[in-house]
Amino acid sequence: MKREARKTREKDNKEEAAFIELILTADVLSRRLQQVLKTEELSMTQYNVLRILRGAPEGLACREVSNRMITRDPDVTRLLDRLENRGLISRSREEKDRRTVMARITPAGLATLERLDDVVQDAHRGQLGHLGEKRLKELGNLLTACREKVG
Amino acid sequence: MKREARKTREKDNKEEAAFIELILTADVLSRRLQQVLKTEELSMTQYNVLRILRGAPEGLACREVSNRMITRDPDVTRLLDRLENRGLISRSREEKDRRTVMARITPAGLATLERLDDVVQDAHRGQLGHLGEKRLKELGNLLTACREKVG
DNA sequence: TGACAATAGTCGTTGCAACGAGTATTGTTG
DNA sequence: CAACAATACTCGTTGCAACGACTATTGTCA
């Protein structure tokens, strides 16, 4: 056991304690997913983008990719650069509105995702499956509530 | 509203859905804290280290700092380098075991933390306070349970 | 005790993240 | 319709993160 990160100012900060639990848990669970993704040399962000693009085979504008991302990335351009260099996505300037650049997933990108699908699901089930459907739903509700007051 | 990141493979992955909620929530809540910390030019990691060292005025070995951190950092040396350069911590080689280097928080480091204490607490309360004590505790329990099966 | 392992930290390198400034295209309005 | 704003992206720069390889010190055991 490690962590505690308070001890001083034991002012009974239930909100901070919950926050720390949240960050810690996210970190611990992410680590396993990162291990899995590493077999394909993908970061979580890159994986996330590929999944977004798989869900939109007709392509998406960079801006739209950014909007749908889980963790906001202020520089999608270079993120897409790297994926394009590896042949996992393709880009093309739009004719109607020549400001926008459409990104599409390539067959190679789809193949990469497919190699990961089962392993990723297994990893998630392995980590969270023991909670059961009811508690997972409860957790989901609480997390959603956490984001309520974000201004 | 953004995010969804699935749509394909609607295989009803309750575990993955919970995972995404978790990461998303952690990201959203972190952002506010990062804003607050930015007023003192600190990253969450640096802030975390300072709080750890405040809790151990006699000093801690680098290794021990690493162990207590919320998010694991594989290169504590340079993290401490930067804090030392800014005068927020000090380091000194231990005499008993000359392999270890003790890190201590300096008065300047303490002052920095003190300037942040209230603002940080306010930020947490502002974001999570509306949940109430009961639901916060429930959330804490669920998050702890999430980390149970980590292998 | 002398060789080898274990521990503790440092440093080189690569690549990604964050921030801001810059460019190109389209929309708006006096 | 000309000027200005808004949009959509690109790029330069800085600094941090991740991964390994490396050095120094101590511990162990034949």
Number of strands of chain A: 3
Average pLDDT of chain A, to the nearest integer?
Answer: 87
Which ranges of chain A are low-confidence, i.e. pLDDT below 50, for 5 or more consecutive residues?
A: 1-10
Structural class of chain A: mainly alpha
How widely separated are the two ends of chain A? 35 Å
Descriptive account of the structure:
Two copies of one chain form a homodimer. With 151 residues, the first copy, chain A, is mainly α. In chain A, 60% of the residues lie in helices and 8% in strands. Chain A has six helices and three strands; from the N terminus they run ααβααββαα. A three-stranded antiparallel β-sheet of chain A has the order 1-3-2. The two termini of chain A are 35 Å apart. Chains A and B meet through α1, α2, α5 and α6 of A and α1, α2, α5 and α6 of B. The structure holds a DNA duplex (30 and 30 nucleotides).
Q: What would you say about this model in short?
A:
The structure is a homodimer of 151-residue chains. Chain A is mainly alpha-helical.
Per-chain topology:
2 copies of one chain form a homodimer.
Chain A: H1 14-38, H2 44-54, E1 60-61, H3 62-68, H4 76-85, E2 89-93, E3 101-105, H5 107-128, H6 132-146
Antiparallel strand pairs in A: 1-3, 2-3
The first copy, chain A, binds a DNA duplex (30 and 30 nucleotides) through residues 43, 45, 61-63, 73-79, 81-82, 97-101.
